[in-house]
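Field reference: sequence -> structure
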Amino acid sequence: MSVLEPKTSFQRIFLPTLAWTIAIIFFFPIFWLVLTSFKTDADAVKPEYLFIFQPTLENYMNMTENYDYWRFAKNSIITSVFATAFTLFVGIPSAYAMAFNPSRHTKDILMWMLSTKMLPAAAVLYPMTFLTKNFLGVFDTHFLVIIVLSLINLPIVIWMLFTYFKEIPKEIIEAGKMDGVNTWGEIKDILLPLAWGGVASTALLCFIFCWNEAYWTVRLTTTEAATLSKLIEGNRAPEGLFFGRLSAVSAAAVGPIVVLGWFCQKQLVRGLTFGAVK
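Structure field:
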């Protein structure tokens, strides 16, 4: 029978203190964002109203009544959901093929896909805008935003899924083939149930990346397909930034993702640590 050793002062005091300190540092920007959202634009820039001020819902009321927040939120939901679904639709078969039917060029293809993330977005902004406006006619459409978000996140999704799928013994897939299961059956009935945690965490991260994407959604939309990033970007004027309204819109944009991450944190952690313990 093993005897548990008593915890040292370092384990009892320093480690929890360090963990709480790091958590507070990461949480403070969100706390400050929410706090500022309840200030008027004038109070938000006055040091004397740092913590003591008269709370107001004016910024949130203005956001829903004058800025049509729900239309921007609907566009964010549509583009994020469909972009995530399309990315997984392409990424799962691609990662499956690379994990269980690799060729001598598989590593080169993976590195090439990852290298596309090194291209500065500004380098292709003009040709993307020119083509979508003048030739393709899809500028400021949900279709364009979904395709762009999918292509941006596809390399990361394939890399993550490839890593998860490689942890599954190849003998299981081969046993399925011997039983007469076709390729689609292998993916649907064998692979996905075994790697469900990894697929779920990949989908969640992809959704977060799509929801938070600002560069392309701001520059490839105007009104019809504009997302919450466009609404946030619109809270500025020649006079400067309206910090109260900007904070309210930002808090409303961050809120759904924070809630989603909170409820899915168990699945996310399990997926990100999939295969870490042998």
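Note: The two ends are 25 Å apart (CA to CA).
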